[in-house]
Amino acid sequence: MTISVLIADDQAMVRAGFAALLDAQEDVRVVGQAADGAEAVTLSARLNPDVVLMDVRMPELDGIAATRRILGPAYPAAHVPRILMLTTFDIDDYVYDALEAGASGFLLKDALPEDLVHAVRVVAAGDALLAPSVTRRMIEHFAARRPRPGRATAVLGELTEREREVLTLIGRGRSNAEIAADLFISEQTVKTHVGKVLAKLGARDRVQAVIFAYDAGLVEPAG
Question: Which residues of 56-91 are buried (b: 16+ CB within 10 A; e: fewer)?
Answer without folding.
Answer: bbbeebbbbbbbbbbbeeebeeeeebbbbbbbeeee
